Amino acid sequence: MEIMAKYRQYQVYNTGELSDVGKILLDTYPEARVFAFFGEMGAGKTVFIKKICSLLGVTDLVSSPSFPIVNHYISESGQSVYHFDFYRIKSLDEVYDLGYEDYFYSGNYCFIEWPERLKSLLPAGTVKVEIKEQEGRRIISF
After folding, report:
1. Phi, psi of 28 (to 5 degrees)
2. Which of 55, 121, 137, 141: CA 20 to 30 A from 19?
3. What is the rounded distance in angstroms from the CA atom of residue 103 to the CA atom of residue 99?
4. Per-residue pLDDT tens for 10-64?
5. pTM over 0.85
6. Domain containing residue 17
7. Among residues 44, 56, 58, which one has the least CA distance to residue 130?
8. What is the DSSP letter of 56?
């Protein structure tokens, strides 16, 4: 598995700044479609993904797919966007049963929370995004 990394780091002090960082992320990796979001519980992965989906023209309610594992959104242009939360999976068999290949290799945007649970299945070119909360701010690296 190869995870693309240019490792730029941004300090975010409020959620309003997340859109700016999301735009930089999408502009930095214009061809990438699979993004792996690493961070502790409560670090802001879902909030950041909501902002990115908004930038992509998603008007659906973006929420954590903790129980269904994957949420499917549609952008204003009709593009599918997939949002995964693998926190609750117990084995890779669940990921295989989900048919992860159909999503990851679809050419559509895939935003993955808790990717460390399936690192070996992430496609080449996956963009690694790390979010850490530190002293009242979020530090986002990619």
Report:
1. -70, -35
2. 121
3. 7
4. 999 888 899 999 999 999 999 999 999 999 999 999 999 999 999 999 998 788 8
5. yes
6. 3-141
7. 44
8. T
